[in-house]
Design goal:
DNA replication, DNA-dir_DNA_pol_A_palm_dom, Rossmann fold, alpha/beta, hydrolase, six-stranded mixed β-sheet, nucleotidyltransferase, about 10% strand, single chain, about 950 residues
């Protein structure tokens, strides 16, 4: 970089901002030692380009020194919600500063001050000295500094930002950016601003009135409006926001400008450092075209993840054989493997247990992989029979294993990789191990990339991505009566099976992890799905208390009701038969009673599923109604009142459901063993079952439920003015729809008309047909079609949304939720009419149901954090669709209700408000 001694030009690099941007903009890269280096690669590449191409007399890289600054004294919530840096970024901070040093670039930071304040102070000092300043950043917070002597440069787009560019982007002069940001606030930095004022409104106010204080002074002269009310109510927040966004430009410079030399590169150490990092292309350019193949062997591929230039070549992942795994029988052997993992900076782990119930499972063994084809198995509790084995293999005691593994599990420099981490975490907790951190989960990585495309179990992913068929569990344990438990599997066979699992997990990680940035799912994984694993782990471990006596009483009650129902069915049929037998039921309904619409299945028996019975009920056949009621009671009895008693954990006296994180296309959680998400909400029997879920002594249950969340999302994503207006003004949305569709005044509206509108509102979300709506409302198909046509006439935006969403699904194969989750829609391009019609309905609903799932997951993370920050004696126990259920000490119940409403309603920002309804009770039914 050359410079004229007559011209002073200071280049300031926003180091903190650039590191994060490079980290999220460049796919994951690991150097030959296994250290993440994608941000380092981007930083080094950019700095060397600037040194080559820009002219400057002085240069420095500015960093944040820490999170707490004087702004936190002004407003404690400032940047408080920002998550900690991603685990893969933490080791890169030091490497970035090392790169700066080798390139001859001074690095500057100062405790108590942000990098932006230092940049402002250095820029002002350089201008005062008669020079020019270029700030390498695209951060809008720095645009207030732009003037005739100070410009900015976007580090990625390399676009120069001067006054015209600021005006074109924000509609105000650079000097007015402080007032603009004070009015509009900043959700990322938690700058409050004024609700309802975005950048365009803020710019309009500033252009009309002037500075922030001039805008606030003009409030009494403004026309009455929601905007004026917000300005009046929140003017103090606006003034606080002004203090938060205004940069300090008068700091004592920690390093004088004259000492910011440029740029005395340490050539030999830099070349050696680039070789160690594996930055072939940068090294080749630096050494004036020297080919990468002539570089020292330290640049050759190792067992670590490939660098950017090598990332398309997967041979080092796919080629190594799945064999010759090592069995670990001594602590000395294990310590060698742990040292390898620490040197590599990552390892894949998997547990083998004696039960699928993680909360009751004992560890039989643990497998570990540190490179493709390099894996081991540590047997712990295998039952060995010396009669059948020439020599009994030594096994490590679990206590010794905990001692040996604990430093690795808690080492922040080693990434622990799992497939279905939640199960392994529960097993580790149950067996006394610490929870591993940091961690990745290949099941969740696959899920955020391809929900709905395929399943995400290890065996299927191995065939799909690795072209490898894994050893199955049946292969080692047998099947049927001959099946043995895993603890009885011979250790050599167990090693082949278990070590392969860890090996496959690692290979999947090496293949799938780098794809997340290009597929634009990294933030969804890192900010939502991965942190949710720990939250769900704790929820499953905590479980919920059950009243077994009430369940037994309900079982008796349901049995009596079923007996009465069965008697009535027999009377209507004119004979006794087994109501639970589909074959006998079909014969009674279609052979003996000669009912219409019967269809035989391939077996020759009559079909009698709920759809068939519902159609008969719709045609007025009372016996079908009775059978449906009987079946509902039978299902509730078998699934809940009988089964829940057997599922009470003998140690905790609680029921511990398991949340499936990858079971749906839309991101919704499902629950199993027991399934607590299908208990009828509005039926009398469902309420009685919920009453059996109780709080511990001295505690109560709190239910917090999002109100009409999918309708709100529909109004938001389809941008429907009437519906948005109703939600903003807290109107009865179904009454509003009835008024629009049926041309009926809201005042004095009958409950029947409102219910019909409610059926249409929710039916539209699920792509209901005229025939389906006709059945729900008890009207003809032509009348139902007229209702739907009128609905679309009143709300044309919904029709547009439906058509656009279906077209996007057909073109891309997936739809997006409002928060960027991809939901792949199977069958959307098929020629088969019924399958395609179902896929089209799914495409319409998936962004709404998926958006609701994103919101509740975000709320779970926020509530978990809020409960800890407020030190409430509360636990989050269950998530059921749009509802969260907590157990809390009685004295903290009201605090938790208020906190839940505040946190959950603000967990995301939509164009309309979210509303949370919360209740308190000794049991779930009371709370809900």
């Amino acid at each position: 970089m050359s410079s004229s001694s007559a011209e002073k030009h200071l280049i300031l690099v926003d180091g903190s901002g650039f590191i994060f941007r490079a980290f999220h903009g460049i796919p994951l890269m690991l150097d030959p030692s296994g250290t993440p280096v994608n941000a380092v690669y981007g930083f080094t590449n950019m700095m060397m380009k600037i040194i080559r191409e820009r002219t400057a007399s002085h240069m420095a890289v500015i960093f944040d020194a820490g999170r707490k600054t004087f702004r936190n004294d002004i407003y404690p919530a400032y940047k408080a919600q920002r998550p900690p840096p991603p685990e893969e970024l933490i080791p890169q901070f030091a490497l970035v500063k090392e790169a700066s040093r080798l390139l001859g670039l001074p690095t500057i930071e100062m405790a108590g001050w942000e990098a932006d304040d230092l940049i402002a102070s250095y820029a002002k000092a350089m201008v005062k000295a008669g020079g020019q300043c270029t700030i390498i950043s695209s951060d809008k917070d720095l645009m207030q500094l732009v003037n005739d002597h100070v410009c900015m440069q976007d580090p990625i787009k390399e676009k120069i930002i001067r006054e015209p560019e600021v005006v074109a982007k924000f509609g105000v002069q650079p000097a007015q950016m402080i007032s603009l940001q004070a009015l509009m606030g900043d959700s990322v930095d938690n700058v409050p601003g004024v609700p309802g004022i975005g950048p365009k409104t803020a710019a309009a106010l500033i252009n009309e009135y002037g500075s922030l204080e001039e805008v606030l002074a003009a409030i009494p002269t403004m026309k009455a409006s929601k905007r004026r009310d917000n300005l009046e109510e929140h003017q103090e927040n606006a003034r606080i926001s002004y203090q938060l966004v205004q940069l300090k430009d008068d700091l004592d410079l920690p390093t004088p400008i004259d000492e910011l030399g440029c740029c005395q590169t340490q050539e030999e150490p830099l070349i050696e450092w680039l070789q160690e990092r594996g930055f072939r292309s940068i090294l080749a350019r630096y050494t004036k075209g020297q080919s990468a193949s002539s570089q020292p062997s330290s640049l050759s591929k190792t067992a670590s993840n490939p660098t950017q230039e090598e990332s398309k070549d997967h041979s080092h992942i796919l080629s190594p054989a799945y064999e010759n795994y090592e069995t670990i029988t001594s602590i000395e052997q294990l310590q060698q493997w742990i040292k390898l993992a620490q040197d590599t900076h990552y390892c894949a782990l998997d547990t083998e247990t004696d039960s699928l119930n993680a909360l009751q499972a004992n560890i039989v063994g643990i497998s570990m992989a540190i490179a493709p084809g390099k894996a081991c198995y540590i047997p712990i509790a295998h039952q060995q029979d010396n009669l059948f084995e020439e020599q009994s293999a030594q096994q490590i005691h679990v206590a010794e294993l905990i001692t040996a593994f604990s430093p690795l599990f808690t080492d922040p420099s080693v990434l622990k990789i799992f497939h279905n981490a939640k199960y392994d975490f529960l097993v580790f907790k149950h067996n006394g191990f610490p929870i591993p951190t940091p961690y990745d989960d290949t099941m969740m990585i696959s899920y955020v990339q391809a929900a709905g495309k395929h399943r995400h179990n290890m065996d299927e992913l191995a065939e799909l991505h690795l072209n490898h068929k894994t050893i199955s569990y049946d292969d080692v344990t047998g099947t049927g009566r001959k099946r043995i438990i895993f603890a009885q599997v011979a250790i050599d066979k167990a090693t082949d099976y278990a070590a392969e699992d860890a090996d496959v997990t690692l290979r999947l990680w090496l293949l799938l992890r780098p794809e997340m940035r290009s597929l634009q799912v990294l933030s969804l994984y890192e900010e939502m799905e991965r942190p949710l694993i720990n939250v769900l782990t704790q929820m499953e471990q905590d479980g919920i208390l059950i009243n077994p006596d009430l369940l037994r009483s309900l079982s008796d009650e349901f049995s009596q009701k079923m007996a009465i129902q069965e008697k009535e069915i027999h009377q209507l049929a004119g004979k006794e038969f087994n109501v639970a037998s589909p074959k006998q039921l079909g014969e009674v309904l279609f052979d003996e009673m000669d009912m219409p619409g019967g269809k035989r299945m391939k077996t020759g028996a009559w079909g009698t599923d709920s759809k068939v019975l519902q159609e008969l009920s719709d045609k007025g056949h009372t016996i079908a109604d009775q059978i449906l009621t009987w079946r509902q009671l039978a299902k509730l009895k078998s699934t809940y009142t009988d089964a829940l008693i057997d599922q009470i954990n003998p140690q905790t006296k609680r029921v511990h459901t398991s949340f499936n994180m990858v079971g749906t296309v839309t991101g919704r959680l499902s629950s199993t063993d027991p399934n607590l998400q299908n208990i009828p909400i509005r039926s009398e029997e469902g309420g009685k079952i919920r009453a059996a879920f109780i709080s511990a002594p001295g505690h109560v249950l709190v239910s917090a439920d999002y109100s009409q969340i999918e309708l709100r999302l529909l109004a938001h994503v389809a941008n429907i003015p009437q519906l948005k207006d109703s939600f903003i003004h807290n109107e009865d949305i179904h009454a509003r729809t009835a008024s629009e569709v049926f041309n009926t005044p809201i005042e004095g509206m009958s409950s029947l008309v409102r219910r019909q509108a409610k059926a249409i509102n929710f039916g539209i979300i699920y792509g209901i047909s005229a025939f389906g709506l006709a059945k729900q409302l008890g009207v003809s198909s032509s009348v139902a079609k007229q209702y739907i046509d009128t609905y679309f006439e009143r709300y044309p935006e919904i029709k547009t949304y439906m058509q656009t969403t279906q077209e996007e699904a057909k073109e891309n194969g997936y739809v997006l939720t409002p928060f960027g989750r991809k939901c792949w829609i199977s069958g959307i391009q098929t020629a088969k009419g019924p399958m395609r019609a179902y896929a089209e309905r799914q495409a319409i609903n998936a962004p709404l149901q998926g958006g609701a799932a994103d919101i509740i997951k975000s709320a779970m993370l926020d509530m978990d954090k809020a409960i800890k920050e407020h030190q409430l004696q509360a636990k989050m126990l269950l998530q059921v669709h749009d509802e969260l259920l907590f157990e809390v000490k009685e004295e903290d119940a009201e605090k938790l209700v208020n906190l839940a409403k505040e946190v959950m309603e603000k967990t995301v920002t939509l164009s309309i408000p979210l509303v949370v309804e919360a209740g308190i009770g000794k049991n779930w039914s009371e709370a809900h």
